[in-house]
């Protein structure tokens, strides 16, 4: 069965897509079979993985039933991808059936035996798309940047996690909080890290030992349709993301023992 990991934070600009892309590519480089799913209507994950996102069926068409999952899955240089586009932003109003929280879970169950890992990039909101990701996931990774507003976004996720656990996914586990754009030399980064550790304890998890440092290569890589791990493999964030992949694999292994 696939291990499903959702990357989530209702705050934008915290590195969800970069983390989703780097994690998917890093797992693929570790010889894992990976499917990346873009649940963000901005469609940045597919673009970052080098897809022509305007010319293929998306997760929106799969939800609508106008395309099959197999028609929506595209191969990239790194892994298989299901892309998204702005049409998905209507999901809150358009999908109103009784099982709407489990649409993604039911869809992904048909390929659960084929992929080792399924990585889900979520929108910067707590809406029906986010709930679908939580319902389908085994694990959540919560990226945040060393800013107070980002910390508030993490704190507000707690209620959604508890709601999903009490309804459609009692086994949902928060694998860890990931500090992004981290600079250990600044007082703010150190203070936010300490507060993040307190919030992590409240939701039954910890802050990852790996912190992701900043670099201009993070912004440059998507423009080239390449993974950061390929585009700038010696850059600080690429080195950090490779370490994160190893830490994620180790944490999941310990959870399964």
From TrEMBL:
What assembly does the database describe for this protein? Dimerizes in the presence of ATP but not ADP; ATP-binding is required for double-stranded (ds)DNA-binding. Interacts with DnaA.
Pfam families referenced in this protein's UniProt entry, alphabetically:
AAA_31
User: Which positions fall inside the AAA domain?
Assistant: 3-173
What family does this belong to?
Belongs to the ParA family.
Please report the name of this protein according to its UniProt entry.
Answer: Sporulation initiation inhibitor protein Soj
Q: Which reaction does it catalyse?
A: ATP + H2O = ADP + phosphate + H(+)
- Organism this protein belongs to: Lacrimispora saccharolytica (strain ATCC 35040 / DSM 2544 / NRCC 2533 / WM1) (Clostridium saccharolyticum)
Kindly list any coiled-coil regions of this protein. none
Xref: Gene3D superfamilies: P-loop containing nucleotide triphosphate hydrolases (3.40.50.300)
Q: Which InterPro entries does the entry link to?
A: AAA_dom, DNA_Partitioning_ATPase, P-loop_NTPase
